[in-house]
Amino acid sequence: MPSRGAFLLVLSTIVGDTTLVASSTDVNSDGGAYQNILGSTLRSCSYDGTALTGYTRTGYCVDQDDDAGSHHICINLSSIASSGQNFCSVTGQSDWCSSTDMPCHEDPNDSTCAIENWCVCQWAFASYIEKAGGCDAIQEIQCDAINMKALEAYKSNTNKYGKALECLYKRCDLDMSSYSYALSSSMSSAANTVRNGSTATDTSSTRRIMIGIGVALAAVVGGLAYITIAKKRRGRANMMGEDDGSTGWKRDDMTTETSL
Ligand SMILES: *[C@@H]1O[C@H](CO)[C@@H](O)[C@H](O)[C@H]1NC(C)=O
Ligand SMILES: *[C@@H]1O[C@H](CO)[C@@H](O)[C@H](O)[C@H]1NC(C)=O
Ligand SMILES: *[C@@H]1O[C@H](CO)[C@@H](O)[C@H](O)[C@H]1NC(C)=O
């Protein structure tokens, strides 16, 4: 991600010449050919009366080859996480989130607008969720303005971005059956890890993934793990002792085991 200085330089350069913006972006800059995570046409993230957003400053969270930060997530920066901190302070950036002198959506020549809905970097969004204290701790996200590319990026590395993926599914009411499908490969690898004897961390991330999936799938995997753990229970007393309490389903297994 570019430094703030570079970011502002790029910003002022682009905003200073809207003709350049139009010619330097492709015909999709109006969002027309982009899909949002709901599977429909990408909507504009910013709107009249608020600061103009988007990597190419078109208002849309477009996908751009040279945008390593991939500013695909539309989030309302004028509301704050439940911690009382805004996106900038939670992610340790200088407080550009509170800027009120930004070029306006309806007229980029008019730099009097406050940032409201903003296309943020998908990687920063993932760490924002963690640092803010989880999906429930973050403010509104604008689902119809979030680029499908973000979902694809998270799906390609569910070990690292499973939580962010889960959060988008949850907050945007996405079809959970496609969620379990998206995670099925990572689920089976997580299940294998458990089967082969895992660390508490591995189990805990499996747990997190499971939260987002339907009860049926959870039951199947839980059953598998139960059988495995039950099989190995004699040799595994020490490992159980490392359970930090965050790995609820292992605990449940232990409880069940005790009651047998
Ligand atoms: C963003 O959040 C602010 C503060 O909660 C609210 O007033 C505003 O209506 C929100 N904007 C959108 C587009 O939801
Ligand atoms: C912004 O200013 C430039 C140059 O002054 C002008 O050509 C352009 O039409 C203006 N844009 C808007 C949206 O008013
Ligand atoms: C666990 O074991 C299975 C076969 O029993 C194997 O396919 C898989 O790769 C192993 N997973 C790890 C993480 O070692």
Quick structural summary:
The chain is mainly alpha-helical and 260 residues long. Helix content is 48%, strand content 3%. Residues 1-28, 188-202 and 236-260 have low confidence and may be disordered.
Shape from CA axes?
elongated
- Report on the biggest sheet: 2 strands, antiparallel
What structural class do helix, strand and pairing data support?
A: mainly alpha
Distance between the termini: 54 Å
Percentage of residues in helical conformation: 40-55%
Strand coverage percent: under 5%
| Mean pLDDT over the residues | 73
The succession of helices and strands, N to C, reads HHEHEHHHHHHHH
Radius of gyration: 22 Å
Uncertain segments of ≥5 residues (pLDDT<50)?
1-28, 188-202, 236-260
CATH class of the domain at 24-148: Alpha Beta
- The count of strands amounts to 2
CATH architecture of the domain at 24-148: 2-Layer Sandwich
CATH topology of the domain at 24-148: Phenylalanyl-tRNA Synthetase, Chain B, domain 1
Q: Give the number of helices.
A: 11
Bound molecules: 2-acetamido-2-deoxy-beta-D-glucopyranose
* Side-by-side strand order of the widest sheet: 1-2
